[in-house]
Amino acid sequence: MRVARFRGLVLFWESEWSLSVLLFVLAALIFVVLPAQELGARRWFLDVSSSLVLVSGIWAVSRRKTMTIIIAAIAFIGLPLHWAKYISTGALYQKGDALLTLTAFLLMAGVVAAKVFQKGPITLYRIQGAIVIYLLLGLAWSRAYMLIEMLKPGAFQMGGAGAGYLTSELTYYSFVTLTSVGYGDINAVHPAARSLAAMEAVVGQLFPAILIARLVAMEMAQSKRIKHGD
Prior knowledge:
This protein is 77% helix and 3% strand. By secondary structure, the protein is mainly α.
């Protein structure tokens, strides 16, 4: 009985449901957990959610064994660093956590992108994957901003909750930049921060355009194959 349940769990994560779970966890982290932190939610609530993103991300890319091993190794090192701040307040732990999380987000985005843009019919799975990529890019840039702020304090002028909520503030700034909204309540003042922000704004404009063009081309190719009976 236990073996059957375990096999069912494995099959669940190897199915398209794994990407749906990752999308749900990402959306919950960005739109619920991070704002809740500034409203007074416990710090560990954010840490648990961030850890779930890494774990669900590993399972979501589990069909690619090599990449799964790489991301799992990053998570294996990164998760202890992520929770080490409750034992030590050393800046090295925080920088290591941000760097490893940034790397994991980019790798996960790359693996999901390979699935989204591969040949085949346009399905809900591809749409979910595209959204996952977009959210992972925003989170990856937020971690890059955090690294800059840790290395060069004052690289960002934050008019909101401030440095006490660095993760939520810079995640908010990242998605405002990615979508080219630019409210101006947080500003990049260091040259490296400005360069990253400009790069993110460009990616935020190019990604939807490239995605739509690719999906339209794939749909047209699929229609031709169906028409010719291939």
